[in-house]
Amino acid sequence: MTNYVVLRFGDVKSEPNGLGANICGSDCFYMVVFQYGSIVLFNVREHDVDGYLKIVEKHASGLLPEMRKDEYEVREKPTLNTWMQGGLDYIMLQYLNIDGIRTIGSVLGQSIALDYYVRQVDGMVAEFTDINRGMEKTGTFTMERKKLFQLVGKANSNLADVILKLGLFERSDIAWKDAKYAQIWEYLRDEFELTQRFASLDFKLKFVEHNIRFLQEILQNRKSDFLEWLIIILIGAEILISVYDIAHKSAITSL
Predict the structure, then answer these.
(1) % of the chain residues with pLDDT over 90
(2) Nearest to 53 by CA among 29, 75, 73, 81
(3) Residue 58 above 90 pLDDT?
(4) Measured distance CA(204)–CA(160) in Å, rounded
(5) What whole-number distance in Å separates Cα of residue 178 and Cα of residue 180?
(6) pLDDT tens string 155-204
(7) Less CB within 10 Å around the terminal CB: N or C of the chain?
């Protein structure tokens, strides 16, 4: 696909591509690798996880210093009366095939990636909170213009990455084509509260944006004040030079 790949490991002859096929009890393992950095594993035992992640690390760039993990249970029950059934931290399906893996993987990948961006923005909020508290005590702040511009770039890139790279508001291709997978996609988005979490992220970014604009105005006023004082000093120096020149000429005339 455009921003992810599904890798299959194990017995290639037993691939569950059929409509009613499932992976329960099979020897196949699946790994959905997303371009923005998330990896979703299916049917992989806990002690084998790190081994599969190392396969991706060999071909990845820009690795984060900290890896975040989450778990979600997908159950298969062929005798289930309905196509799907949700529960506490699990979803139950009549069968799980490659389309189900792609649909579920897309939401889980977005969820864990969104956690990363939320932590990034929380860090910026905490930084501006400390600046505001310092201003409350001292009446001024000491942030350099370069640091402020770096925060501007970080805030803008975080929002752009969430919308463009994660495709948070783009419906899954499979969900567009099949109502059954649209049901899974919508259920999981509600289960992981993707819309609400993005709204919270957007609110925090607006707080950061407000503080950035406020501090930019302060820095601009400082620059204006500096230029005004510089102009005053230059005018004063010119006056002193003129007075000295007049006095010097008067002394020569009197001689």
Answers:
(1) 25
(2) 29
(3) no
(4) 15
(5) 5
(6) 888 888 888 888 888 888 888 888 999 999 999 999 999 999 999 999 99
(7) C
